[in-house]
Structures are given as C-alpha cells and as structure tokens.
C-alpha cells in the first residue's frame, strides 16, 4: 500500500514570540518538524509533502535535510488547515493509495498509532486521531458514537454542551488521497475564525455517504507545541521517555534525571553513563563503554570498552575504537583514535589519526588551524607524545616514536625516533638567590619613598 504524508508547517506560531518558524524550534537536538517526520517515515511513505509558509526557505531546508526526497509546497497566505492541505493537491493529484495529514508542531505521535489509523481505513473512508483530554481547553471536539465519527466542532464554534466533550481532535487525519482532496476542495470558511477548517471534511464525508471513524491514542502523543512553555514540556517529556527506554535497554544511568538525549542517541547494553552527561545529535555508544560525569558528546562513536571523562568534550567526527581512554578536560574533534589509545588529561586533539596503543601526554595540542585552513596530524602506533607537546599540523609522527615534553613539533618524526623540539636547558649556579635578593632590595627601596 502506498502512503503519502502531508505535513502542515506553514503557521507562524505567534505564541512562541520568535523570529524562527515554530516547527524549527528544537526538542532533543532536532527541529519539531523532524520529530513529526520521524513518526511518518516508519510507514515508508512514497511521497512526503511539507506545507510551508512562514520562514518557508528555512522550513524547506530542514525538510530536505531530513529526507532529500521531501517535497515542499508554499501556502501563502495561510487560510486554515484545509487550505493548507489543498496546496498539496497539485503535487499529489495522481497519487494512489493513502494520504495522512500530520502537524509539524506535534512531535510525539507514535508510528504504531499511525499504523492503527491505516488499519481503521478498512472500516471508514476518513479516519481521525482523537484523544481523551484531561484539560480539553481549545482543542476541536469529536462528536462520536463509539468509533463512529459524526463531525468535529472547533472550540470557537462549539456550544456549551459540545465544549463539555473531552474526546478531542489531534489533527491527524487519514483517507485515500483521492477522497481527501475531493473533500478538502468542498470546505468553506463560514465559521467563527473565517478559516478553511480541515475538520469540516468529516461532515462533508458523511453528507457524501462515506463513513468516518475515530482511532484514539494517549494524550501524551498529541502534545502540540504552541508556546515556549509547551516546548520545555515537550523536551521534558522526550527526556523522561528516553531515560526510561535506556534503562529498559540495559544501560546504567547513575542519575537518569541529569542525562539528556538527542533524537537519535544510541547506547548499547551494559554501557554506563554518569551524572550530567549531554548527548547532542549523532552519538552512538557501544555496549560496555563508560561515559563518566559532566561530558558533552555529539556526532561521535564510542566503542566497546572505551572510557570517557569525567569532563570530556567529544565533538563531531570523533571515532574512539575499543578500549580507548579519554580523561578529564580533553576535547576530541574529527579524529580517529585506534584501539587502546590513551589521552588522559588537558588535551586538544582535532583533525588527527592516532595509531593503536599510543599515549598522549597531558597538555598536548594538535595545532590544526593556521588561521585559514585546517591540517591533519598523523601519529603512528605505540608512540609516546610527551606532556605539553605542540603538534603543528600538517605533521606525522611515526610508529614507536617519542616526543620530548614541551616540544613544538613542526617537522615529521620518523618511526622509532626521539624528537626534541625545545630550547636546551642551562643551569646558572647561585643565580636564583642573587636575583631574589636584588628584587627584595628594589621592593624595600620603593617602600621608603
Ligand atoms: C487544529 C484543529 C483542532 C485540533 C488542533 C490540535 C483545525 C481547524 N483545527 O486547531 O481541531 O484540536 O489542531 O492541535 O484543523 N497550519 C498551516 N496552515 C494554516 C493553518 C495551520 O500550515 O493555514 C498548520 C500550523 O502550522 C500547525 C497546524 O497546521 O502546524 C495546526 O494549526 P493550528 O492553527 O495550530 O490549529 P489549531 O487551531 O490548534
Ligand atoms: Ca495548534
């Protein structure tokens, strides 16, 4: 069965009080739009159409960043949710199969819920996703008997009796593409808001002799983001669920409430994550690795048996092989650390390849940036980089080589060589006490004047 997704994302989101389109605000290090698309992607849609309006260029960029095949249509001006869906009609005119309408500002609908809606299409021409609201507020109300849906009434247009109904409209709707566009074309705007309401398709379907039905889901799935407070709520809800899932999957979280996950964080079984760890996008941690407290990781891969932190920053392009040890106040960026490499303390490793079992001394820096371009540092196997070595890239240090502490390495070091790149030490006997006596005399003279 082929499925087309239509994702509504044209609204300004006035109540966000922001220059940024609402659907581009982040939860778990990803725009709201990506959350909505993630649920839809599980259905393996043949077409994805995003309806953009406010900030259309940025919204389009975010849509295609998620899926190159996503198509974007512009809705200008924004005359309501049915008008928004109608903008997708020219693109999907010949689309066979099902169409599902999602909202870009509703991030938590589960794929299983969308699958249940597709199943319900066997019984109804139009299927709407509803939920029992603890506080129905301004949601549209579903007028239904059992799973048989008569119509949807918007809060603004509802009578007191209708407002007392707690079965509410999530906004997600499913029908055959043909039925959906036929019905949407008939929607008018004679209502309290003067808008073209997508919700009117239910009544129109029934007038045409088609049946409409409700599938329900938990209210937590339908959380819509309209304000910064709701954005914070959505973040908290995501994190609560991600922590519970990690624990369920056999990950130890010492202080779960202090660990923050991204939409795509993957952590293997028996990994241990200490307190106050933040995962940005694109992190995978293999089974049995340990991330100690106060680490910040993004775009990196940590292999089995590796230990990281406390207080380490692992940035995009960092690959830590098995049994690598990265200690405190170490930053790693765009670098491959082979098996057993140790970087214990106070170090910056950027744009580098480090061979297996090499030890990097405290205070080492790969000087990768000349102010214009970035350059790579290559270090072989079993090398020993002395403390406070400056590796001025591009530079190569061979297998089993050693650099003396405090060296500034500007030339390649051959395998098995010792490189000394620092001034030779000179000792002047007695000069320390003479110098101190002189300085004290100067201070005393100043005190008198
Ligand atoms: C809508 C539903 C309401 C439901 C609620 C759930 C209608 C008429 N009402 O109301 O029954 O309970 O969602 O959250 O559908 N959008 C466009 N173009 C437009 C208007 C909206 O793309 O012209 C997009 C918005 O960006 C947003 C979504 O559609 O992502 C919903 O629009 P919004 O104005 O928030 O609808 P509600 O009034 O909340
Ligand atoms: Ca809304």
State the gist of this model.
The chain is α/β, with parallel strands linked by helices. The chain has a 19-stranded parallel sheet that branches. The longest helix is centred in the middle third of the chain and has 21 residues, at 228-248.
What does this structure look like?
By secondary structure, the protein is an alpha/beta fold. It has 2 domains: 3-222, Spore Coat Polysaccharide Biosynthesis Protein SpsA, Chain A, CATH 3.90.550.10; 228-419, Hexapeptide repeat proteins (UDP N-Acetylglucosamine Acyltransferase, domain 1, 3 Solenoid). Helix content is 22%, strand content 30%. The strands form 5 sheets. It has a 19-stranded parallel β-sheet that branches. A 7-stranded mixed β-sheet has the order 5-4-1-6-10-7-11. The longest helix has 21 residues, at 228-248. The N and C termini lie far apart (96 Å). The mean pLDDT is 97. Bound molecules: uridine-diphosphate-N-acetylglucosamine and calcium ion. Uridine-diphosphate-N-acetylglucosamine (UD1) is lined by residues 8-11, 51, 75, 78-81, 83-84, 103-105, 139-140, 152, 154, 168-171, 197-199, 224.
